[in-house]
Amino acid sequence: xxxxxxxxxxxxxxxxxxxxxxxxxxxxxxxxxxxxxxxxxxxxxxxxxxxxxxxxxxxxxxxxxxxxxxxxxxxxxxxxxxxxxxxxxxxxxxxxxxxxxxxxxxxxxxxxxxxxxxxxxxxxxxxxxxxxxxxxxxxxxxxxxxxxxxxxxxxxxxxxxxxxxxxxxxxxx
Length: 173
What we know:
This protein has 173 residues and is an all-alpha fold. The chain has one domain (4-117, 131-172). The protein is 50% helix and 0% strand. The chain has 5 helices and no strands. It has helices at 4-11, 15-24, 37-51, 56-72, 137-172. Helix 4 (56-72) runs antiparallel to helix 5. The protein is globular. The model is unreliable at 113-124 (pLDDT under 50).
């Protein structure tokens, strides 16, 4: 577990910058050494995407869509206050994981297939099914894929410039 100061040092960003990310991405904040490695890995992903020139609004859109998808899949019922971050930093089966939450969907992403009906808790039944209320997992997955592919393309375009800049910066050191 880490403090905000330790994460600040590890991520090479001031604490006020990290607090801004916490606020804008609606992340829980803690006192003392209560930040997990997964939490730090999530912030690192955001910083990497910003370094690659992605607009924070695009990252936030993807984040909100991922969280909605995870809620529709009932991942939020695991009981953790950081349920949406707990898979961050995992390295196995990268092709099956969502970009920001790093949650393993059990199939390659992008994919238009989902194992529907997963529920990890016993919640009281809703008056109406999610689909009747306009919450359609496949619709949210399609929204996610559209945003994901847009970010993927932007990273692919920017990557050669970042590599060239890193090589150029190495000459300065």
